[in-house]
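Hey, I'm writing a tutorial for new members on how sequence and structure tokens pair up, and I'd like a real worked example in the thread rather than a made-up one. If someone can provide the structure for the chain below, I'll link this post from the tutorial.
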Amino acid sequence: MIDVNRLRVFRAVVAAGSIQAAATNLGYTPSAVSQQVTTLQRETGLTLLERVGRGVEPTAAGLELAEAAGGVLGSLDEVESRVADLRVGRTGSLSVAYISSVGMAWMPGIIAEVVRDFPGLRLGLFVREVPEGSESDRMDIEVFVKNPEFPARLGFRDHDLMEEPYQVILPVGHPLAEQDQVELSALRGETWIASDSAESSCQLRVDQACAAAGFVAEYAVRADDHLPAIAFVRAGVGVTIVPRLCTLDLVPGVVARDLVNPTPTRQLTLRVRKAVEDAPQVHRVVTGLQDASRRDPLVPTASGISRRRSPRRAASRD
């Protein structure tokens, strides 16, 4: 069986690029590090490192072993962390990854209740736009935008959370700000501000909706995030389109209006690890997310958005 500590030492050498640097980082002597790597090569029957100048580089086999060891060592670190928690009386944990708009609109209130009702709970909360990588394998809960590129994951259960429409953000005083709903085609010729990266699925939905309305949006600013995009709108530079969750706490000087003909939307997906879905802290977060998504039902219709009527969200300039 491969010794775990030797794997750690080997990965440290690969990361540092030399025996000497790895020894300094680990607090070992260079000879001790060299001995650990030599023993690991003997255990595996593989040549893992080769000398390059004054340093070392992993061979193809060494690089593959270092990458494979990362997940194993990460899992062992998690086990050790859980053991440490149990020693001091912390008997539960919760890890949640979510898109930034959900993090702003829903997560603070939900987590505040969880922390209050489950004192000592070990939390791991992460903003993550894409459910990929080894980190996703360790999440208890994820909220992300549904995409064919994100298939179902073994050991997890997916739930449709909400079909979320996009809205246009306009500066106060814009002629279209007087309307409750804005025809997407009416935005032809506006100065456009992108609220997401050009290659993102969310931005693609906006561009596809504009194409369906008969025009191509010409972006003067690529803000790559809804907060700076809205700031540009407030300054009078142009208009932007963002998911509705991004409009729940608008700054003064801008308004949000529903879009119609067509209404771009995105599907939010809730993914839960099956092994922990009955844990009370996990159930509380899942229920909180589902309740939040139902508070203001949003159902796309042929003519626009059907929802409970709420006061017009507008703000005047400071």
